[in-house]
Amino acid sequence: MGDFGSNGSSSSMSILMYPWLAFGHMTAFLHLSNKLAEKGHKILFLLPKKALNQVKPLNLYPNLITFHTISIPQVKGLPPGAETNSDVPFFLTHLLAVAMNQTRPEVETILCTNKPDLVFYDSADWIPEIAKPVGAKTVCFNTVSAASIALTLVPAAERDIIDGKEMLAEELAKPPLGYPSSKVVLLAHEAKTLSFVWRRHEGIGSFFDGKVTAMRNCDAIAIRTCRETEGKFCDYIGSQYSKPVYLTGPVLPVDEPNKTSLEPRWADWLAKFKPGSVVFCAFGSQPVVDKIDQFQELCLGLEATGLPFLVALKPPSGVSTVEEALPEGFQERVRGRGVVYGGWVQQPLVLDHPSVGCFVSHCGFGSMWESLMSDCQMVLVPQHGEQILNARLMAEEMEVAVEVERGDNGWFSRRSLEDAVKSVMSEGSEVGENVRKNHEKWRCVLSDSGFADGYISKFEQNLIDLVKS
Ligand SMILES: C[C@@H]1O[C@@H](OC[C@H]2O[C@@H](Oc3cc4c(O)cc(O)cc4[o+]c3-c3ccc(O)c(O)c3)[C@H](O)[C@@H](O)[C@@H]2O)[C@H](O)[C@H](O)[C@H]1O
Ligand SMILES: O=c1ccn([C@@H]2O[C@H](COP(=O)(O)OP(=O)(O)O[C@H]3OC[C@@H](O)[C@H](O)[C@H]3O)[C@@H](O)[C@H]2O)c(=O)[nH]1
């Protein structure tokens, strides 16, 4: 099998990874790279320059995982210097996809020079066209839930779009024929967040076209999930594409004896509070809460719980710092028990801190796995289609979390957030006890020493067979 140089093992594979330019995706690809490097495989990881410093500390095998930075071209309409989804407002994401497409010549050169056995990608749907000539097999590795792919990104979900005409919410909410769940679905007002899936953009077509092409043309589809939580969705995707679907399992870093520790400023601050009493709130790596009013409802809802809280959120649209967006008098009222921080915190380590007892999450798929592995109570405030589906999976199917209630306009109130947090944190709450019990059962299954390893070993074997085929 191929090799980037020589790592001395004849059965080791050389793998090139090129994830979508978003931290949630890059992090998931890197966790998987660590698992494969642990088995002796060599990885060349492509990423934008700006992402390197943030992602580098997660590399547990620097001798086997090499980063290669890619220049992300400036595309008209994108903020100057934008390289990742964190730099781009949600409604401009398609332009970042255009920029990623323009990296094709550079990636082609890297492929020709390195001739890997395998290429992993998710968004760059042209990878199979440039990988085949160098003899590499391709794996479309999906870091989002199988449910969200099954609902919108399978051939049966194709829609006849009349150019320029937006689909009605009722139309968007209809699951494709054969979709295997009646619980993991969207209400009409929630389905409006899916309109981007079929909307056409000049030069790149629609999100749907890109994802279906990516999954049609690869040699195998892979998903960061497990049969125990999403088996029926994986089977449906496999039948829609008539090709193997490999599952990696949760792919989370295990506790390393010398892993980095939580920044002292947070460790010290959290240590002031009783075990299990602090509410931690984070909404992933991308700008999420767009509206200043919703940002303020969130702050006021946490204030109203009376509990200590740590919020790590990007500022909403229209302001450049979180401080500017805080409600009047908020900082004075919560001083000593509540912090709203606009930067990056080490989420897995915060969740692991003994004082933290509740996680208010947007339910990105990475956060979903991290929260399932933690012993925190979970309150879900999903913002977009995929996160709403993940939330349904957690709240309705697995019954491990409580989702915040929203009005018909899709907005949540400070009261609904306060109620949701209290329902899981108040002693003697029936809802709280039920989700705690179910969460504990799932945590035991997922954190069993053989569980994740079993998935990775099977996944590795799938890859070896694919390369040999
Ligand atoms: C092209 C522009 O993309 C839009 O970006 C949205 C975000 O997409 C995330 O990925 C998915 C989202 C959803 C979803 O919201 C609902 C669904 O039913 C399915 C998905 O699937 C995916 C997805 C699936 C498979 C895969 O391999 C992926 O890489 C993604 C993504 O995580 C996030 O980074 C994007 O910001 C944007 O709204 C814009 O308007 C579109 O034009
Ligand atoms: O302050 C922060 C914020 C986020 N994070 C980490 O960043 C990652 C965020 O990933 P999530 O998947 O939860 O959320 P994102 O919104 O960033 O990701 C997006 O792309 C990847 C998909 O799987 C998600 O479903 C989608 O929402 C998590 O691993 C989280 O631990 C931090 O470590 N600190």
From TrEMBL:
<dbReference type="InterPro" id="IPR035595">
    <property type="entry name" value="UDP_glycos_trans_CS"/>
</dbReference>
<dbReference type="InterPro" id="IPR050481">
    <property type="entry name" value="UDP-glycosyltransf_plant"/>
</dbReference>
<keyword id="KW-0808">Transferase</keyword>
<protein>
    <recommendedName>
        <fullName>Glycosyltransferase</fullName>
        <ecNumber>2.4.1.-</ecNumber>
    </recommendedName>
</protein>
<keyword id="KW-0328">Glycosyltransferase</keyword>
<dbReference type="GO" id="GO:0008194">
    <property type="term" value="F:UDP-glycosyltransferase activity"/>
</dbReference>
<dbReference type="InterPro" id="IPR002213">
    <property type="entry name" value="UDP_glucos_trans"/>
</dbReference>
<comment type="similarity">
    <text>Belongs to the UDP-glycosyltransferase family.</text>
</comment>
<dbReference type="Pfam" id="PF00201">
    <property type="entry name" value="UDPGT"/>
</dbReference>
